[in-house]
Design a protein that fits this description.
This protein has six helices and seven strands; from the N terminus they run βαβααβαβββαβα. It has 207 residues and is of the alpha/beta class. The strands form two sheets. The chain has a five-stranded parallel sheet with strand order 2-1-3-6-7, with helices on both faces. Helix 1 runs parallel beside helix 6 and helix 2 crosses helix 3. It is globular and about 55 Å long.
Length: 207
C-alpha cells in the first residue's frame, strides 16, 4: 500500500492557491487509491527543528566519525527524527509558493535539516554525490503571482523550481511531476487555477 506525505510550504491556509491545487490532487488521489495512507506535514506547525550551531556541530562530528554528545546529540536526534518521518513515505506532494524568486524559508529549513550524510546523500571523493532517497515519487505544485514563464526579467526569475527540482534529483528522487500556476498580474487567475487543478487531478490519478 502506498504512503503519501503532503508537505505544505505555504502559511496562508484557505487563502493559499498552492494548497487549493494540492487539495484537488489529494481528492483525486484518494479516489484513485482507496485505502492509501495520506498524511500532511505543515512546515509552519512549529515541529520543524532549527538547524543551528549544535546541529551543525553534530553533523561535522558525524562526518569525522565521532559521536555527538550533549546538546549536539539532542539536535542530531531531532534531525534524524524528521528524516525518518520523511523517509517512511514512498510518495510526496509538495505545495510550494514562490517567495522572492525562490522557495519559502521553511522549505529550505526542511532541506537543511534532512540533507545529512548517510540519510539523504552519500559522497565519494572520486564519484561525488549519490542521492539515497531512491524509489520515491514526487509531485510538486509550483505557484507564483508576478513571475510567469512568458514574461521578461523585469518580472523576476524562477529560482523556485530550479532550486527545488535540483534538490529532489540530488537527493535521489528521479520520478518528479510538476503542476504549475503562473498567471502573472494581468492573466486570468481563475482560469489558470482551474487548469492547474485539472493538471493536479490528472497527475494524481496515475500517481
Amino acid at each position: 500500500m502506498s504512503r503519501l506525505l503532503h508537505i505544505s510550504a505555504s502559511p496562508r491556509g484557505a487563502a493559499s492557491v498552492s494548497l487549493s491545487i494540492a487539495e484537488a490532487f489529494l481528492d483525486a488521489y484518494r479516489e484513485a487509491n482507496p485505502g492509501a495512507v495520506v498524511d500532511r506535514f505543515d512546515l509552519w506547525d512549529g515541529t520543524l527543528p532549527e538547524f543551528g550551531p549544535a546541529a551543525a556541530g553534530a553533523k561535522m562530528a558525524f562526518i569525522a566519525g565521532e559521536e555527538p554528545r550533549g546538546e549536539r546529540a539532542e539536535a542530531w536526534r531531532a534531525a534524524v527524527a524528521v528524516f525518518e518521518r520523511l523517509d517512511s513515505y514512498d510518495r510526496y506532494l509538495f505545495s510550494v509558493p514562490m517567495w522572492n524568486a525562490g522557495v519559502p524559508y521553511k522549505l529550505k529549513q526542511l532541506i537543511d535539516v534532512v540533507s545529512q550524510p548517510g540519510m539523504v546523500f552519500s559522497v565519494d571523493p572520486e564519484l561525488g554525490y549519490t542521492g539515497l532517497l531512491t524509489g520515491k515519487r514526487a509531485a510538486v505544485v509550483y505557484t507564483s503571482l508576478v513571475w510567469a514563464p512568458h514574461l521578461g526579467p523585469e518580472f523576476g526569475a524562477d529560482f523556485q523550481s530550479t532550486f527545488f527540482g535540483d534538490w529532489l534529483r540530488w537527493a535521489g528522487v528521479k520520478d518528479v511531476h510538476e503542476i504549475r500556476y503562473h498567471p502573472g498580474l494581468t492573466g486570468d487567475a481563475e482560469a489558470e487555477a482551474k487548469k492547474a487543478a485539472e493538471r493536479a487531478r490528472e497527475v494524481a490519478r496515475r500517481f
